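Protein data sheet
==================
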Amino acid sequence: MKTKTVRNKNELVRDKSLKWHTYEAVFGNSQKSPSFKRAYSEEMSRLQIAKQVRVFRNLKHFTQKDIADRAGMPQSVVARIESGERGITLDTLGRIASALGKEIQLT
């Protein structure tokens, strides 16, 4: 299979070899499954937490290392949380929230 390197968004739009699919076409009937809905909801929640941690950290002009030091954890943990590649325990989230001067609020 031939791989193309795309340099920018305009090139991506012009690349006719790419095929776009709708959410419905990709997930179809699986989105009706209770287990799919639960997994999708959990994934979206995890990504939202990752985004909020990054946003609040940037608003305070802290580095990942600053937050990690304040929370008593390695910087790599903060990086993995912010990237959304890993889940987060409530304990870890509480330590990060405290380092950011925030409280956890479950709704």
